[in-house]
Design brief:
The complex is a heterodimer of chains A (about 850) and B (about 525). Chain A is of the alpha+beta class and about 850 residues long. Chain A contains 26 helices and 27 strands. In chain A, a hairpin with a 5-residue loop joins strand 20 and strand 21. The radius of gyration of chain A is 34 Å and the shape is flat. By secondary structure, chain B is an alpha/beta fold. In chain B, strands 1, 5, 6, 7, 8, 9, 10, 11 and 14 form a 9-stranded mixed beta sheet that branches. In chain B, strands 2-4-3 form a 3-stranded antiparallel beta sheet, with no helix packed on it. In chain B, strands 12-13 form a two-stranded antiparallel ribbon. Classes of the chains: A alpha+beta (about 850), B alpha/beta (about 525). The interface between A and B is large, with 84 and 72 residues.
């Protein structure tokens, strides 16, 4: 209940002011007044207030007067502030800063009896309406048309359940309705999808590779850029751009004859190479490349001098067949000296192929992960996947260090550590496809992940004999993964729980025992053999000899505090585990997980985290759920906890998410545009917002995934799969927003919008393979008549970039963008409609790119 | 035009709600009451004094840094593999200046002296890799503060770093930092674009807060924007559009104020930074005389092998490095922070480096920990020479350099030849105004002597297996001074805050039981602490 103060006061010429206390209002109820009058002595002014959802009327008819009205409304986020100014020449009305407004209209009438009509003698610009004061005295009325609640919810859904809208997804969701979209996303297993990035190409077959370029020199190098082996056959170089047509300018490209120095010279690091007659693509032989160190140029490659010499102004095409040797894939590179033609088939292998064949490095996994975020239709699954990655943090570098004791090959260490992250990530993607996936399921996945066992030092933790168990995992399990810091446990609980985890370790296992921790490892079975000679998979193994076999009591005598209310308060949550020996000891860990998974502390902490992810940043652990004045945030956390508790099995993720998505907070202004994008959300969102599919199947914006890694790093050190601290990357804005990180975000946007081929230095700032074509987007969505129409172009782009803002709220951005289109770089008039669409680059293209970049550098694009 | 803003109690506190959020803040008409009060109070930012902080992330092993060499518990029984040996010929009980094992000839390896360096307070010594601290110490420009901690010490890195940065031990909800609050109290945080700056991967909690934007530079050489086309005029057009848009009004949402402030900060600071040379090519700062008895003055900020000590002078001799080759990005950032304090109106700047979490293979006179000490000492040496010889808007007398680290490490080494998380640690405070050795105090060592007494209280370092080194849970060094007392004294007596301001900046000061000002028995955990030490 609050009262506000309505003050009418005027400057000069007025001799009295009138103030009226507004009656107290119920929170949330529309504000209604009866005839508030404001009378002045010299020039009569009456103020008549009838307010209901933004309608109110005033009379302001006297020139040379200054009147100011303010009214503070009950809804904390919707204060009304309207100001009417009369000066010599103009009437000006300042409009209220309402969110999600489609249109402001000013109506007026000179005679209250005849009713109000739109006042076309004035214009709205931003939050100001102005008209010239030529006519008779007027009564004014403000009309606000809000965005439809469907449109608002669509924008919120795409900004939270997804990595932001794409132009196509925006159309689709608006058509099907946001509720249907939310239902669709909550059941990802029903969304059919076949992404090219998930295609796994056969690795055991010969692959055909071609490359076209200019004759920058007459020396062709063939080399591996790292230690390893591979096969090349049917190497052909022809004049022109069509592979294999015309005379082969290379000698012994089919490797049918012995390698003689006249044809191919072999440098010392490739000395082990030679003709292979067993493995060949065609004919009798192929080139078996063996490198003992990476090559790069003549002294470290196999090379041939082509005669007669090539011409630098002529195009040539190289083609060959390449066979990777599994588990030892290295970068094959073929190129002319000075790189007029360059070919590297390793780049052709999709990240998925590498990941599924144990050939991937961590950058391949990162690329695959962000490509999913950009391309997948199962956006909520992607968002959840990232949430779980950032909740149950593991670290690639730590796994790498762990394997360093067993292997010498640096590339192999990277591949092994990547595999651990990839497998963990895959289980996060798989689990939510089960409609009844629970938090308990996810907790077990995390505990069993070798990456986690290594990361929090359980791997060597011993509790047998006099050994003291390592407490790291037990501490973080409580502090960061389940209860939340100091929420229902103390140091003694950590010490006791740590004993339960002793024995949880990793080892190299036979492939069939990857998920059988009680099986013997390959090291157990072949004790004399060096680890580097064992062919298996690193997986979870339980080492019973390390286990603390005593009985344990955790949370002794503790009961759930009263603040949790019914049905939790007062419950005992003591856990007593009996003494367990042998392989039975493994149950200690599983019992702990089962016990922690559904405790009210866990429910609270995870619900708070999910609310912070999907609604806004200001949810906290520690609400008094019995308080009758519980805030809306507290109530939503409680609703999530009820969804957790009152279904069977408990903790079903979909039920909890549904509670959030169906809440008033989520569906209203309470959630819309209240969060800021993390670096991952920002780079992915930038690509997505311009990414529409053209009729030929390609897209108007694309990334190779790899090129997003450096920008994310620069925007505050966000390094996927490799965070040092287990608390995860921050979710809230202050952790990411400072002038320095903003500079990086803005540079990224600008660099991404630069066309390929124009200003390579600036383009390579964000990565040459982040490509956008906003003109193609415009041409894909607007009829040809509208392409030169600055207003139409801007209106369309604003609707896809800022779907959560109303048209009226964006009015000033609109004016700025149109002005940008109609101005050249020196600031002089240069009509957009006269810009040519041809040329290299077309002026139309440059101007559009500049304008889109400007829109994406504005403050509102930082939000989701 | 007059605005009559009906500001509800909540409206004022939470949101400086204005039409035109991005309006240049220096033209604010309705200056919030807090600012009006601040402008009339204290001297922060108006007395020319500045502060440079370096956060040592991971927890520095204080006992091997400033070594209680005459404590019988500092022995090979407790630290079999990581003990720093005494020099046989040195009597560490003799008082006087700090020994200064600078080389006698150019060809000697930089760190040829491999024993603990006598500090001259009769009890303590320095790790030999800290040898470049000796000139600062003897000039009276260095204070070594030992047994620094806080009550109910957390042994969690993130929690403890948070407490050091937000100034409220035990309070995880305080989301703004000590230096942020300091700058807010200055009244300049909203009107000057550059008050607090960090040069690292993201803005640290020390400088974070919701009401004012401090600047963090991830890479000072990249602090400029592109345009399309990326030409002078194209960039200007893009910049213009951005600045125009900064000023547009929007309805209120949770993060809009933060975004508005930081965008404004960015626009204002871009021009300032464009005029500074942060590149490696511009790294020409050198010592003022031949360093360490070598043939020439060393570069002050090693950002490459060529600028790292005497390496290049002696035909690429790695034994003549002053710091390890992994230190270059830290020194690049440190140089930037120093440049910023020196060339702009910034009041507080800082950076960080990590690697201190030496749970395994800590090393002794060489190794992980030793390398980190070299960086600390050379950084202090370099900053002193830079601000003595290249001073512009900041002088060595007006600058204080302070290190922070989240806790110390276990007295007894662990089975992995390292140490684990413990309690009290060491702080380094340097600057022309510091009251170090014979510059206001008879010794520059505080908190590491059996004779320690402060503010009328006896707080001796108790030796032996049941002494200070085992003072907490029989495992950890017990604190004798609170880190907040150190920072508080600097913020008040150096930067110029009033005591009332300090009570707001560090809330513990307003709680008499915490004894931060004059010492006493802390009501939080019953430990006797010194209160403030006379370091400035």
């Amino acid at each position: 209940m609050r009262a506000g103060l309505l003050t009418c006061r005027a400057e000069s010429r007025w001799e009295s002011a009138y103030q009226q206390q507004l009656p107290e209002q119920e929170p949330g109820m529309p504000i209604a007044f009866a005839g508030v009058s404001c009378q002045f002595q010299k020039n009569r002014v009456s103020i008549n207030m009838v307010t209901n959802r933004g309608w109110f009327s005033r009379w302001a008819a006297v020139p040379l007067a200054l009147i100011s009205l303010s009214l503070s409304a009950q809804e904390a986020s919707l204060p009304l502030q309207i100001e009417l100014t009369l000066t010599n020449q103009q009437t000006k009305i300042e409009l209220p800063l309402y969110p999600a407004v489609q249109e402001f209209k000013i109506l007026s009438t000179t005679n209250l009896a005849t009713g109000f009509a739109e006042d076309t003698s004035g214009q709205v610009s931003g939050y100001t309406w102005m008209e010239s004061l030529a006519g008779p005295a007027n009564f004014y009325r403000l009309q606000i048309t809000p965005m439809s609640s469907n449109a608002l919810l669509t924008a919120t859904a795409l900004n939270r359940l997804a990595y932001g809208p794409t132009p196509d997804e925006l159309e689709r969701v608006l058509a099907m309705g946001p509720q249907a979209y939310i239902e669709e996303q909550l059941a990802p297993e029903l969304i059919e999808e076949q992404l090219a990035i998930d295609a796994v190409t056969a690795n055991s077959g010969w692959q055909y590779v071609t490359a076209t370029g200019t004759g920058s020199s007459s020396t062709l190098y063939v080399y591996l850029t790292a230690v390893g082996e591979g096969y090349v056959d049917d190497l052909v170089l022809v004049r022109g751009t069509v592979a294999g047509t015309g005379a082969n300018l290379l000698r012994n490209g089919g490797f049918e004859s012995p390698l003689v120095t006249n044809d191919w010279t072999i440098s010392s690091n490739h000395l082990g190479s030679g003709i292979s007659t067993e493995i060949k693509h065609s004919g009798t032989g192929s080139l078996h490349l063996v490198a003992t160190s990476g090559g790069s140029t003549k002294e470290s490659a196999i090379w041939q001098t082509i005669t007669p010499a090539l011409s630098s102004s002529q195009q040539y095409t190289l083609s060959y067949w390449y066979l990777a040797k599994s588990n030892d894939l290295s970068d094959l590179t073929l190129r002319l000296s000075n790189s007029g033609i360059t070919s590297s088939p390793d780049a052709l292998l999709t990240p998925a192929t590498k990941l599924f064949n144990n050939l991937a490095g961590i950058d391949d996994l990162r690329a695959w992960h962000v490509l999913h975020a950009v391309q997948s239709r199962r956006q909520l699954l992607e968002v959840l996947d990232q949430f779980l990655e950032n909740h149950f943090v593991t670290q690639y570098s730590k796994s790498r260090d762990y394997f360093d004791t067993y292997y010498n090959d640096s590339a192999l260490l990277g591949r092994l550590a990547t595999q651990l992250e990839f497998k963990e990530n895959s289980r996060w993607r798989q689990a939510p496809l089960n409609p009844q996936c629970t938090f308990s399921n996810l907790l077990v996945i995390s505990a069993e992940s070798p990456a986690m066992i290594i990361y929090l030092d359980t791997v060597n933790s011993k509790g047998n004999a006099k050994n003291i168990a390592n407490e790291n995992y037990a501490r973080e399990l409580l502090e960061l993964f389940t209860f939340g810091v100091d929420n229902g446990y103390d140091q003694a609980d950590i010490t006791n729980m740590a004993k339960c985890w002793t024995g949880w370790s990793v080892n190299i296992m036979d492939l069939t025992n990857e998920f059988n921790p009680l099986a013997k490892s390959l090291r157990d079975l072949y004790p004399g053999v060096a680890v580097s000679n064992l062919a298996g998979v690193w997986a979870f193994q339980y080492k019973q000899g390390n286990h603390n076999t005593n009985s344990k009591t955790i949370f002794p005598g503790k009961t759930v505090p009263a603040r949790f209310g019914s049905p939790y308060a007062g419950r005992s949550y003591q856990l007593t585990l009996p003494a367990r020996t042998g392989t039975n000891g493994i149950k200690d860990g599983y019992d702990v997980l089962a016990h922690l998974a559904d405790q009210p502390f866990t429910q609270e902490f995870l619900s708070v985290k999910l609310c912070r992810l999907f609604v806004h940043d200001d949810f906290d652990v520690g609400y008094d759920f019995t308080d009758p004045n519980l805030s809306p945030e507290g109530q939503l956390v409680r609703d999530c906890m009820m969804a957790w508790e009152t279904h069977s099995p408990k903790g079903q993720i979909r039920k909890i998410l549904a509670a959030i998505f169906n809440s008033g907070l989520f569906r209203s202004h309470g959630a819309s545009m209240h969060k800021v994008k993390t670096p991952l959300e920002f780079v992915v969102g930038t690509i997505r917002t311009l990414r529409s599919q053209k009729p030929d199947g390609t897209f108007t914006a694309e990334t190779d995934g790899y090129s997003l890694r450096m920008p994310m790093n620069r925007m505050g050190g966000m390094s996927l799969f490799d965070r040092g601290d287990p608390d995860g990357y921050p979710e809230a804005a202050p952790g990411w927003i400072s002038a320095g990180t903003l500079a990086e975000r803005l540079r990224f946007v600008q660099s991404v919008l630069i066309a390929v081929g124009q200003d390579d230095t600036a383009k390579s700032d964000s990565g040459r393979n982040n490509v956008t074509d906003p003109v193609a987007l415009i041409k894909n969505k607007l009829p040809a008549l509208k392409w030169p129409d600055a207003g139409a172009v801007v209106d369309y782009l604003l609707s896809v970039i800022y779907p959560g803002e109303g048209k009226a709220n964006l009015d000033l951005y609109r004016t700025t963008a149109i002005n940008f289109l109609n101005t050249n770089e020196s600031g002089l008039a240069s009509p957009f409609s006269s810009l040519s669409m041809s040329g290299n680059p077309p002026p139309y293209d440059t101007r559009v790119r500049g304008m889109v970049a400007a829109l994406l550098t504005f403050q509102r694009f930082q939000e989701q | 035009m007059q605005h009559l803003n009906i500001i509800t109690r909540r409206g004022f506190l939470d949101r400086s709600f204005k039409i035109g959020l991005g309006v240049a803040l220096s033209t604010l008409v309705d200056i919030p009451v807090v600012m009006k009060r601040a402008l009339a109070e204290g001297n922060i930012g108006r007395n020319g004094k500045k502060l440079l902080f370096i956060f040592l992330r991971g927890a520095n092993d204080a006992l091997n840094s400033v070594i209680p060499i005459r404590d019988s518990a500092y022995n090979t029984a407790n630290r079999p593999d990581i003990l720093i040996p005494s020099d046989v010929g040195t009597d560490y009980s003799v008082t006087g200046p700090c020994d200064s094992p600078m080389n006698s000839s150019a060809a000697d390896p930089t760190y040829g002296y491999t024993s603990a360096i006598r500090l001259g307070n009769g009890f303590a010594a320095l790790h030999p890799s800290l040898k470049f601290l000796a000139p600062l110490y003897n000039a009276g420009d260095l204070a070594l503060l030992h047994r620094v901690g806080y009550p109910k010490q957390s042994r969690s890195h993130f929690d403890s770093q948070n407490y050091w940065e937000n100034g409220s031990p035990g309070n995880n909800l305080a989301k703004d930092g000590i230096f942020y609050r300091t700058l807010l109290e200055s009244g300049l945080a909203h009107t000057a674009p550059l008050t607090g700056v960090s040069v690292q991967s993201s803005l640290p909690l020390l400088l974070r807060g919701s009401k004012a934007a401090m600047t963090n530079l991830t890479d000072p050489t990249r602090y400029n924007l592109l345009g399309i086309p990326n030409t002078l005029t194209g960039n200007a057009k893009a910049d213009n559009a951005l600045r125009t848009a900064n000023g547009f009004p929007f309805p209120e949402k949770r993060n809009r104020e933060l975004l508005a402030l930081q965008y404004q900060n960015l626009s204002d600071t871009l021009a300032i930074f464009a005029s500074l040379d942060f590149s490696d090519a511009g790294n020409t700062f050198r010592d003022d005389a031949s360093t360490d008895n070598d043939d020439a003055p060393y570069y002050l900020f090693p950002t490459s092998n060529a600028t790292n000590g005497g390496y290049a002078l002696h035909g690429n001799n790695a034994a003549k490095y002053v710091v390890d080759t992994g230190a270059y990005s830290f020194f690049r950032n440190l140089k930037a922070a120093a440049l910023i304090l020196n060339k702009t109106e910034a009041i507080i700047a800082g950076t960080e480096f990590g690697g201190f979490d030496t749970h395994s293979n800590q090393g002794a006179i060489t190794g992980q920990h030793a390398n980190l000490q070299r960086r600390i000492a050379w950084a202090m040496y370099a900053l002193r020479k830079y601000f003595l010889n290249y001073a512009d808007k900041a002088t060595w007398d007006n600058l204080i350099v302070v290190t922070l680290s989240e806790f110390g490490r276990t007295t007894v080494q662990n089975s992995d030849l390292g140490t684990d998380h413990a309690e009290a640690g060491v702080m380094f405070v340097a600057g022309g105004a510091v009251k170090g050795f014979q510059a206001g105090n008879s010794s520059g060592v505080f908190g590491c002597s059996p004779n320690d007494a402060y503010n009328g209280q006896s707080l001796p370092w108790v030796t032996g297996q049941t002494g200070s080194m085992f003072g907490v849970s029989s495992r950890y060094l017990k604190r004798a001074v609170d880190y907040r007392s150190i920072l508080g004294k600097l913020i008040r007596d150096h930067l110029g805050a009033t005591q009332a301001q300090l009570n707001r900046i560090i809330p513990g000061y307003a709680v008499p039981g915490e004894c931060l000002l004059s010492g006493g028995v802390s009501s939080i955990d019953g430990t006797r602490i010194a209160g403030e030490l006379g370091v400035v």
